[in-house]
């Protein structure tokens, strides 16, 4: 599989050397934010964990605590997120989404619809370890109906990997029959297919659906369903919006995975590049860090 992330492991990586650079950037008066954000945005999450260990070994302090004391605002939140192992980051985002006042369905939808089966299984383990609860039980306590059913399917972590050529046509026909083909929608069919296939596979199915029915499946989903179920069905095959929290989550969690695809579909959906949108919607060091993670203008 070709590399679709904008952040790759740094080639001549030296954790001890990086820890020294960060230490110097935070020593004495003032903090060199530029050095910090340039360095961390150019390292993979795994490398950042090694820098954290090297920093502790050299200076006897926790790097994340030191960064928190030196930085503030959105930049601090972004850097702390970059320093968090991906699974812990997802687990804590889900925990906040479920435990706050009301449920942040956007977060549930975005994370559960875009992670692989393996990642979901890891998230469930970390969630239990860090928050002492069962993720599925907490999700079920806060959701209902077909929306809940689809989340539960995604939480089984059995979503297929890759594209199954043999199933594309059949899936497209089944979805057509379940939706527009008749009066009323067979949600079960939608849920089963969309909950168990990979995002790449679904993109192929959506193309086949377009050829078959002459319309976009997105339109048919919007026409036949509403609210959280609609948003979740749409999210299983695509990318989300840009308020600060969402933007930060996406830039952090997708920079190593599929940022190039996100940039392409963003441009297609909004007619402007993600890079130029970040330039317009954000400012200062926070903006600089996001632009590094974005990796380029389209």
Automatic annotation (TrEMBL):
Q: Signal sequence: where?
A: none
Q: Which GO terms describe its biological process?
A: negative regulation of coagulation
Among the GO molecular function terms of this UniProt record, one is:
calcium-dependent phospholipid binding
Q: Sorted alphabetically, which Pfam families does this protein's record hold?
A: Annexin
Annotated Gene Ontology cellular components are: cytoplasm; nucleus; plasma membrane; vesicle membrane
UniProt KW keywords: Annexin, Calcium, Calcium/phospholipid-binding, Repeat
Q: Which SUPFAM superfamilies match?
A: Annexin (SSF47874)
Q: Which domain of life is it from?
A: Eukaryota
Q: Does the keyword 4Fe-4S apply?
A: no
Similarity-based family: Belongs to the annexin family.
> What does the UniProt entry state concerning the protein's domains?
A pair of annexin repeats may form one binding site for calcium and phospholipid.
* UniProt-listed PANTHER family: ANNEXIN
Q: What is this protein called?
A: Annexin
**Taxonomic classification, please?**
Eukaryota, Metazoa, Chordata, Craniata, Vertebrata
């Amino acid at each position: 599989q070709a590399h679709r992330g904008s952040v790759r492991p740094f080639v001549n990586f030296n954790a001890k050397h990086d820890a020294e650079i960060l230490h110097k950037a935070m020593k004495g008066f003032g903090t060199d934010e530029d050095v910090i954000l340039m360095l961390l945005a150019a390292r993979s999450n795994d490398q950042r964990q090694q820098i954290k260990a090297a920093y502790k070994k050299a200076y006897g302090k926790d790097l994340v605590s030191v960064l928190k004391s030196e930085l503030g605002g959105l930049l601090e939140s972004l850097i702390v997120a970059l320093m968090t192992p991906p699974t812990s980051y997802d687990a804590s985002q889900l925990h906040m989404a479920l435990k706050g006042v009301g449920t942040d369905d956007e977060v549930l939808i975005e994370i559960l619809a875009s992670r692989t089966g393996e990642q979901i299984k890891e998230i469930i383990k970390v969630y239990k370890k860090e928050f002492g609860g069962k993720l599925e039980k907490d999700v079920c306590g806060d959701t209902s109906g077909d929306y809940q059913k689809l989340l539960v399917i995604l939480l089984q972590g059995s979503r297929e990997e890759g594209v199954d050529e043999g199933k594309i046509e059949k899936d497209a026909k089944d979805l057509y029959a379940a939706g527009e083909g008749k009066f009323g929608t067979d949600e079960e069919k939608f849920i089963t297919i969309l909950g168990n296939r990979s995002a790449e596979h679904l993109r192929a199915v959506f193309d086949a659906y377009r050829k078959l029915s002459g319309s976009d499946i997105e339109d048919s989903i919007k026409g036949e369903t509403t609210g959280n179920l609609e948003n979740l069905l749409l999210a299983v095959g695509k990318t989300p919006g840009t308020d600060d929290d969402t933007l930060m989550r996406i830039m952090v969690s997708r920079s190593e995975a599929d940022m190039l695809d996100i940039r392409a579909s963003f441009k297609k959906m909004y007619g402007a590049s993600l890079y130029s949108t970040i330039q317009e919607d954000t400012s200062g060091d926070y903006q600089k860090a996001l632009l590094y993670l974005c990796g380029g203008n389209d």
